[in-house]
Amino acid sequence: MSRRFDPTRRDRLIDVTIEAIAELGVAGLSARKVATRADVPLGSMTYHFTDMDELLREAFTRFAGSVAVRFEERLASVVGVAEAKAAVAAIIHEDVFDTPANLVLTHELYTLAARDPAYRTITRDWMRRSRAALERHFDPTTARQLDALIEGLTIHRALDTECHDPEVTVGAIERICRGAGG
């Protein structure tokens, strides 16, 4: 019996893990469930990952990186502070938590990061990239405050039962920028 050549297996396992976390949460995940969903032998899990923790770190790193890229792309295409402010509002209302799966994935990552420094490294890198994108248009202090506003308002918008008025978001962005002289 020959071995099946599958050069994309590791990536597929990571992608399937991201999907499974969004559906089942980290607590509902197991190597067996991931292997079954990826249609790979359970034994191949240990070939690609030393344990579930390594697989989870890889999956969350990929997820956070994909969100950071969208954030960076949104801010890279703007010119001037006015467009940058509008881009921040769009990030809050259109980009972050654009799907229920992304909301769950983000909160699962936050929960792990609150308990485990290895996951905190992932969130710290994500925040660093977000702030660097913001700092193309705002000073570092304002960028940090806007990043916190983005996190907070996206969580409120995603979990609140009432609709959030985009004008309230624009007003908050203006107040932060006005305090910074922008």
Description of the structure:
There is one protein chain. This protein has 182 residues and is mostly helical. It has a domain at 57-179: Tetracycline Repressor, domain 2 (Orthogonal Bundle). It has helices at residues 9-24, 31-38, 43-48, 52-76, 80-95, 100-115, 117-134, 140-159, 166-179. Helix 1 crosses helix 4 (52-76) and helix 5 (80-95) packs parallel to helix 8 (140-159). The model has no long low-confidence stretch (mean pLDDT 92). Residues 7-67 form the HTH tetR-type domain. Residues 30-49 bind DNA. Pfam families: TetR_C_31, TetR_N.
Q: Any descriptors?
A:
single chain; 182 residues; mainly alpha; Tetracycline Repressor, domain 2; 76% helix; 0% strand; transcription regulation; Homeodomain-like_sf; TetR_C_31
Task: Describe what is shown at a glance.
InterPro entries: Homeodomain-like_sf (IPR009057), HTH_TetR (IPR001647), Tet_transcr_reg_TetR-rel_C_sf (IPR036271), TetR_C_31 (IPR041583). With 182 residues, the protein is mainly α. The chain has nine helices and no strands.
Could you outline the blueprint of secondary structure elements for this entry?
Layout (H helix, E strand, L loop, with lengths): L8 H16 L6 H8 L4 H6 L3 H25 L3 H16 L4 H16 L1 H18 L5 H20 L6 H14 L3
| Quaternary organization | single chain
CATH architecture of the domain at 57-179: Orthogonal Bundle
Range of strand content: under 5%
What is the mean predicted local confidence, pLDDT?
A: 92
Span from first to last CA?
68 Å
Unreliable runs: none
Query: How much helical structure, as a percent, in the residues?
Result: over 70%
CATH class division of the domain at 57-179: Mainly Alpha
Listing every helix as H and every strand as E from the N terminus to the C terminus, the arrangement reads HHHHHHHHH
Q: Biggest β-sheet: count, sense, barrel?
A: none
Radius of gyration: 19 Å
Looking at CATH, which topology of the domain at 57-179 would you report?
Answer: Tetracycline Repressor, domain 2
SS-derived structural category = mainly alpha
**CATH homology superfamily of the domain at 57-179:** Tetracycline Repressor, domain 2
Can you count the beta strands?
Answer: 0
> What's the total helix number?
9
Keywords: DNA-binding, Transcription, Transcription regulation
Domain HTH tetR-type: 7-67
Protein name: Transcriptional regulator, TetR family
Pfam family, one: TetR_N
